[in-house]
Amino acid sequence: MRQLTVTHTTVYRYRQPVRFGEHRLMFRPRDSHDLRLADSALTISPQAEVRWLHDVFSNSIAIATFEEPAEELRIKSRIVIEHFGLENPEFVIEPYAQTYPFSYPAEEIPDLGRSVERDYPDPDRKVDAWVKGFLSNGGETRTQDLLVNITKAIPEQFTYVRRHSLGTQTPVETLEIGSGTCRDLAMFMMGAVRALGLAARFVSGYLYDPALDSTLTGGDGDPAADEGIRGAGDTHAWVQVYLPGAGWVEFDPTNGLVGGTNLIRVAVAREPHQAVPLQGSYFGAPEDFLEMQVDVRVTRG
């Protein structure tokens, strides 16, 4: 077990005081057998009234409403978790699903249906052709090996880039460009495994990188200390694939990692736009907006 603290601070600044519309926050993870929430705190300035709800996926959502205008909006989330993630686990898959292809049980198909559907067009079957390259010629493919090989191939074949603009590339766009953010690479892997008829979900959360942990380095951390981990120091995105007997299994295509040893799951959704950590609006002129700053720190203890 590893105890981790996540501090996520977002600051919006404006040229003059503006009024704020409703803001939707998704920072609080759900307790599970592999992640326990030990403590949490949410600080918002200017003062806001906060109500909590669960969305259609049972993610924990905070809705903030504001009365007073301000030149700055500051939202700080702090969570302390006990983390039990495994690295490169051996999945306990039902015998009938240990090799691909296989079919999900009839009783599970209604619940998995939308997670298998492909929501983005691929008229030339480019994504299909890419993912079918991982299948054995003329024989069955071990399911775990198939998914591990796909996960490890993505960081080898695609360039990771940071992009703070809204939106996510389609799987075809990522394949054609050959690069993407963590959410683009997660979306690409979802499209690839869905092309094989497997159920996949989008996951948003955080990534723990010891190289950025100031509690270990005694300072602010060294971002260049471990160039092998990509996507830390910000929110992170990865994929879950449903395997009979193993359930929803974590795959991080940005780093080619299997299992959730350094992944802190906050939100699970069918598509990326359903797992945006923070979204809202303000009332004012477009030129009133000056900047947005985001600081994410994940440390031990």
Structure description:
This protein has 301 residues and is an alpha+beta fold. It is 18% helix and 39% strand. It is built from 6 helices and 18 strands. The chain has helices spanning 109-116, 126-132, 143-157, 171-177, 182-195, 214-217, and strands at 2-20, 23-25, 35-45, 48-54, 60-66, 70-83, 99-100, 141-142, 159-160, 179-180, 200-207, 235-243, 247-252, 257-258, 263-269, 278-279, 282-283, 289-300. Strands 1, 3, 6, 17 and 18 form a 5-stranded antiparallel beta sheet that branches. Strands 14-13-12-11-15 form a 5-stranded antiparallel beta sheet, with helices on one face. Helix 2 (126-132) packs across helix 5 and helix 4 (171-177) packs across helix 5 (182-195). The chain is globular, with a radius of gyration of 20 Å. The N and C termini lie close together (11 Å). The relative contact order is 0.23. Residues 221-226 have low confidence and may be disordered.
Distance between the termini: 11 Å
The backbone outline, from C-alpha atoms, is globular
Low-confidence stretches: 221-226
Portion in strands: 35-45%
Overall mean pLDDT score?
91
- The beta-strand count equals 18
Structural class: alpha+beta
Helical segment tally?
6
What value does the Rg take, in angstroms? 20 Å
Can you summarize the main beta sheet? 5 strands, antiparallel
* SSE ordering: EEEEEEEHHEHEHEHEHEEEEEEE
Helix proportion:
10-25%
Q: Oligomeric state of the chains?
A: single chain
